[in-house]
Structures are given as C-alpha cells and as structure tokens.
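Posting here for the record, re: flavin-adenine dinucleotide.
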Amino acid sequence: MMRAPAFRWHAATSLADAARALAEGGPGALLVAGGTDVVPAIKRRQYQPELLISLRRVAELQAVGEAGGGLRVGAGAILSELATHPQVHAFTALERAAGQVASPHIRNVATLGGNLCLDTRCNYYNQSLEWRRAIDFCMKAPAGSAIASPDGGTCWVAPGSPRCWAVSQTDCAPALIALGATLTLVSARGQRVMALADFYRDDGMTWLSRAADEIVAWVDVPRTPGLRSTYWKLRRRGSFDFPVLGVAAAVDLAGDVVSAARVVLGAVASRPLSVPTDQLVGQRLSDAVIDGFADEAARLAKPLDNTDFQLGWRKRVARAYVAGALRELRGDDPAALGVLARRMTALIPS
Ligand SMILES: Cc1cc2nc3c(=O)[nH]c(=O)nc-3n(C[C@H](O)[C@H](O)[C@H](O)COP(=O)(O)OP(=O)(O)OC[C@H]3O[C@@H](n4cnc5c(N)ncnc54)[C@H](O)[C@@H]3O)c2cc1C
Ligand code: SF4
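Prediction output follows.
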C-alpha cells in the first residue's frame, strides 16, 4: 500500500482564510478539494506538500445558482450534485460532462475546481514512484510550488522532444469552454477574471495560467437563449475511466442557420482544443457541412501514444463523435445517434 508522507493540515473556513494560508504557506502549500486526484498523486510522490489547505469547509465556494443573468458555479460544487442540479439542466454539456467524470463514488466527493485544475496525464507518469524510477523518470515534474520531484529529463512518448505532451483529461473544462464560461481566481492580492479557455496552456508540465497563490473561486456561464449544447465522451469502461476523447459542442441556431458555435475537444492535447468554427457559422447544419467540419476537427486532433487505445482509431472516432454531436444538436433522432455510438464501441480494437 502506498502511504502519504507527513504534512501539516489547514481546514480553511473562508475563501479569505484559504487565500491567506496559501500565500503564507509559500512553495510548500497545496490546495485540496475532493482529493480524488491530488491524494493519489501525493502518495506517488508527485507532490510533496508541507501544508495541505482543504477547501471543503469554504461555503462561498459551494454555491450554484443565478448570477448576472447566467449560471455561477462555485469551485467547491460537488460533481454529482452538478449533474443533477435543476439550474444546470439547461447547460447540457456541463450536466453531461459532470455526470460522466470517473465513477459515482468519486463524483460524490470530487469538485468542479479540482476537475478544472486536474493535472495533465500520461501513461509514463501516472505511476508509482518505483515504476517511474525504473524508467529513470521523465521530464514532467508537476508545475506549482509544492513540488520536490526527482524526475529526470527524457520524454518517453516523444524522445528528443523539448516539451512534455501529457494530456488534459478533464471532462468539465471542454464543456464549460464550449458554453463560453469565464473563471474567477482569488488570491490574497485580489481577484481576476479570465475566459476559461485562456486558463489552459499547451504544455504538459505547466498546464494552467494560474499563479501559485491563486484559488479558482467560481465559473460564470452566460445564459444564451436558444443555445444548444452537448458532450460526447469516449472511454474504455463507461462507468469509470478518464476520457480518451471528449467532444463538447454548442451551437446557436437562427432558424436552421448557425449564428454562433463552439466545439472543443478534450484528451487530444495538453489543453482543451478549441476547433475554429468559421466553416459552421452562417451555414445550415447539412450533412455536407457537418462532415466537412468533422474532417477538419479530426485533422487538428493530434492524440499521442500516452493514453488508452490506438492512435489511428482515436482519430477516426474524433471525426465520428464531432459529426455525431453536431447531428444531435441539429435535432437528429437520438436513437439513431445511439446506434452510431454503439458502432464506434464495436470498433474498439481488442
Ligand atoms: C479512478 C479515477 C477516475 C477518474 N476519472 C476521471 C474522469 O473520467 N474525468 C475527469 O475529468 N477526471 C477524472 N478523475 C480525476 C478526478 O477525480 C476529477 O478530475 C475530480 O473532479 C478532481 O476533483 P477533486 O475535487 O477531487 O480535486 P483534488 O484532487 O482535490 O485537486 C485536484 C487539483 O486541483 C487543485 N485544486 C482543487 N481545487 C482548487 C481550487 N479551487 N483552486 C485551485 N486549485 C484547486 C488541487 O491543488 C490539485 O492540484 C478520475 C480520478 C480517479 C481516481
Ligand atoms: S509526455 Fe513525456 S515528459 Fe510528459 S509525462 Fe509523458 S513521458 Fe513524461
């Protein structure tokens, strides 16, 4: 059994208290919310905090409700509650993404903030200390302040690469980016707001544009009348696994013509990948338009050999899932789309 090393514990009682503790804790301080990702990582010695600051008792982070004409979701909101919350129902992509993270047990403690800050992942990295030592480690040492990692210099996915290609596998980030969400970060220095899309960096080692003393406080999702959204997730075990592909799509239709669209792919890069939607806007969602767009999305998706399934197959599924998601938003019969999803599952190489 892996054991965590000793650390000090501070249960923050308010957002201001958490921000103060994080600032005072310096490089040895680390936030924990549900702990479903960070606790195993501590046991694997990927984080070696001197001080863990728990956000679980911070009531200000837990609210879910209307704010400024849209939906505000606190970073401490529990995923299983988000997936069944009546006010989240209209935001289908978020409802579906939150409802498909991990397993029901994990969703009962995991938070939105932890999901949005989820470390990037790689088959060569999400392993025990002994396993990583046996391959002489690799170049990824988690970004942030609480790290004293012994990891070394080679990327085993792309030897010779100057960068780490670990993959962003959060489900909720692509969904919220497709919905046009903004993020509020709070620190002892003040607060700032940014587009959620700008929170992510294309870098497996420094995947967030978050300063070490900043706390994700909440996300705001604009309420756009008529906006339809969805989230399609590919994973090996439907009740448990991380996404190997996530497709979040949102379209605003004026009649049957697309007036605005956002399509975001998860698990194909070190950050959620926004696909330019110029070729959708101003068009009817005909089969030809959808298929042309899906071809382009699959071309941009560049999965590497550091998660599950074969690369070529994953690219083919990316095309099929983008096309399927857009057909769903066009109003196609869900039963027919279910057949498509089942066909894709049947294609899984043994
Ligand atoms: C078996 C298994 C399967 C999983 N499957 C999935 C999956 O399918 N999809 C998926 O997306 N994830 C999956 N996860 C990962 C994880 O459970 C979820 O991403 C979860 O939402 C993380 O939330 P948490 O509250 O537990 O985060 P924690 O583990 O507490 O924290 C995660 C990271 O976020 C930071 N953090 C937490 N809250 C804040 C905040 N408010 N501000 C700044 N930083 C913060 C922590 O310091 C840490 O670095 C899986 C995990 C396991 C163990
Ligand atoms: S992509 Fe390369 S450097 Fe990054 S975690 Fe994987 S093996 Fe390590």
